[in-house]
Amino acid sequence: MTEEKILVIGANGQVGTELVLKLREFFEDEMVIASDISAPGEELSLSGPFLYLDALDKESIRHTLQQHGITQVYHLAATLSAMAENKPDFAWRLNMESLLIALDLAKEGLYKRLFWPSSIAVFGPSTPKSNTPQHTIMDPDTVYGISKLAGERWCEYYWKKYGIDVRSLRYPGLISYKTQPGGGTTDYAVHIFIEALKKHSYSCFLSENTGLPMLYMPDAVKATIKLMHAPLDQVKIRSSYNLAGFSITPAKIASEIQKHIPDFKINYKSDYRQQIADSWPTSINDQEARQDWGWHPDYSMEEMVSDMLENIKETKGKAQ
Fold it and tell me: Does the pTM of the predicted model rise above 0.85?
């Protein structure tokens, strides 16, 4: 592992921030280069090297790969589901063109291995809702989902045609206390903790019984790194692997929070994100990831709630 030199594109996002910090626990700090188009937060900037890099600037990325002898790229830059609906042209360009740039540079032999995240947004209204299997109907009706499904097909194409070692996970909703969510439909599952501690109340933009698969960020980061370091012959799916942690509804997570904050109240005011959420699965079958490269989550829903509240309290205390 010490021979790897890693570039993370889109490092300032919800996944990137925690992924970079965890990678720097495995590698020497200077071996993991974070990059984004905007300035990083303090924790990220102090932990190792950072470059300003546009995911759509192919020549700058090529120069970075060559200059630093990069062997692995984690390509995380994307416009997420809710934001993509408001800016569809930009979302398609960023989500698709940046991936094709990364794939083409790998085809040129400038680095060895690519990670690119997909999403449960690739599924759609005709997909089986419960225990959604790896291989099933995929008919996304959101800009984000369409771009992710197209990206999956490109990844598998580059693997089959050019032998590009590209690896991918279909992230469910991700819950994290370290960074603010970035415009996704599952953002409520982060906001609810912040508001619970701050106001003891929360107004949710999804209805109370909207079930969605979720994953705590430490598990998402663990899965990402585990997949990227799995032996080549264990990675049997080159589109994207299903990934699951636990499934929750706003009412269920509110009830768990009330065990810690008894006077917490929640109300429901559904907006345009409700339609997006209703098109997604309520639970995911990730048996292929478990069988092929040994994936399993560490956190249950109850453990996640307890850890989120504890860490947000601690972060708030340090800021005061």
Answer: yes
